[in-house]
Write a structure and sequence with these properties.
It is built from three helices and two strands, in the order H-E-E-H-H. The protein is α+β, with helices and mostly antiparallel strands and 80 residues long. The protein has two domains: 29 residues, no CATH class; 31 residues. It is elongated and about 50 Å long. The two termini are 31 Å apart. The mean pLDDT is 80.
Length: 80
């Protein structure tokens, strides 16, 4: 296991086909490269692509989200 995030990223850059493990505080994490082209665009991606909030009303935000869902963003938000 790699000891730090920096070391893990160095190893990942050398061989992006292999995932690496690192320790972050009390957590052991695994990092791997994700091919953006293979991941479908999600609702969160669509909302983020709209840019920063610029004073839209709740109704306007609801319309934007509804349109994004119609465009293929169907994933439900995670439960908290």
């Amino acid at each position: 296991m790699t000891e730090s995030i920096e070391q893990a990223l160095t190893r990942l850059r050398k061989d992006p086909r292999r995932s690496v493990r690192a320790r972050l505080d009390d957590f052991e994490i695994e990092i791997h490269v994700v091919d953006r082209a293979s991941r479908p665009k999600r609702l969160g991606d669509r909302v983020a692509s709209l840019g920063p909030w610029s004073g839209e009303s709740p109704e306007e935000i609801s319309t934007l989200i509804t349109e994004a869902r119609r465009g293929g963003g169907a994933a439900e938000p995670p439960a908290l």
